[in-house]
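Before the break, one more example. Copy the sequence into your notebook; we will annotate it together after we see the structure.
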Amino acid sequence: MIRPILDSVSSLKSQLMLMPTIVDHIQRKEKKSIDELTEWLRKTEDILQKLGYAQCAELAGLRGKLLTPEFSHLKRMSKKKEKLRIASLTVYDAQEVISQLLIPLEEKLEEARNIVRQILLAIQPTGMLEVDHCQDMSNIIQGIWFTLRENQHLGGGISKILSLISQTDAMRILAEEISSVQES
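Here is what the structure looks like once it is written out:
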């Protein structure tokens, strides 16, 4: 069974959006920048661990690199400079780990979204997408999903979608795309 990835992508993208601020703080050599990067690594590591991605170990390793100056015999001022140097090197590696994880997930989501759009274009003239907003939207989406799965002409598209993403993600995308069609 394919695990849902929409929330994973959203969480990881949110983490990546925090990176420019951390880099700015490192660039200004602010003392808090090391703590911010460490916290970012910890939080992102926790997200990856909860989602079941082994890349959490890579982030733990990068977090460990930030500790290296603590165990050296450098003077206090030299330790701060060394921490900042290591932090600036670690930033790219950390975001690269996340980016390399996100790219294939986003590609799957985009391919599935394109298939959903094609299916909706095909069924739009049938009036199936004209829904009564007084009804429960969840039930409407489930009904449309079931109808599409059972349709001999569209079932192949649904099977392709389910080979890319989970049914939960597929139905969420279907709901988003139906809303988009209705707004236009």
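The chain has two domains: 6-106, 107-183. The first helix runs from residue 6 to 27. Try to locate both features in your own notes.
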